[in-house]
Amino acid sequence: MFLKIYSRVLKFFTNETTKFRASKNGTQRNSCRNYSLQVRAEPKVPFEIRTIREADIPQVMELRRQNHPDLYFGGLYCVQPKYRGLNIGYQIYKASLAHTMGKNKCGNAVLSMAEKYQRSGDFPIVEDEYMTLKNFIPHHINSESLAGMDSVDGIEIETYQDCLLPSMIQYDASVVGYTRDHVLELNCKEADSKTFVAFKNGTCIGFGSIKKSCLGAARVGPLYADNEIIAEVLLRRLIESFPGMKGLAMMTVGSNVPANNFLKKLGNANTEACLRLYGKEKVKANMSKIYAFLDFNFSAF
């Protein structure tokens, strides 16, 4: 309270003195400056950093039960605007790193932040075989520019059912290199989402999901397939299952040319490139079969 009153008194005194001098000598009016002194105390905001609990966000807590045993993935973290600039975000970041207990970790960094993460020593290794691309088409999507079922022979596209999950889990593991059964099940059963699975002679050869984002747009991910024609047919089926969407988001691998060509067929996408960073070593997957990442912020692939 004293600092606030003190600041106001100083400001009032300085302003009134300037006016007084100017009124006595009109020739000095333009040369007089309006000084003010602001005295501010450093804000002190008590806060606690802890892990998310079941009661906070139950859906997120479900995901913790299925992770790679030797890999942590760093996603987004945010601070409410009124608490920014108080070092809270950095404390969250450091607490998250401590949680990895020295194991390998990876994440996607926008180009403006990548060097900062590297210099910190937390993510010194850069993926040099590909970049991750965030793509967004802000307008209505016409899926007719993509290949349809008449472009493939002997392929069946089925809507997700629980009985298809074992085949999907096996295919997913062949692409990313480890098992994510619980994550896949949660992905397929998420509200406002659709999942389709491609089969040939009873064997899973690809699958994809589409879901509604918080902005009312459709987001495709994952989209995995043996080849580009299967991926394109799946993508068209996904888009057609979501009529009236307000744009399309899709996170792709920079080196997967067919995946990025799909977006060119659909319209001019706003694209932002990110670098894939690692803590100890690179993590390999069959990138030729990844046409869209499962989730840009919460999954390595």
From TrEMBL:
SUPFAM superfamilies: Acyl-CoA N-acyltransferases (Nat). GO terms for molecular function: acyltransferase activity, transferring groups other than amino-acyl groups. Residues 155-297 form the N-acetyltransferase domain. PANTHER family: SLL0310 PROTEIN (PTHR47237:SF1). This is N-acetyltransferase domain-containing protein. It comes from Caerostris extrusa. The lineage of its organism: Eukaryota, Metazoa, Ecdysozoa, Arthropoda, Chelicerata. The gene is AVEN_8287_1.
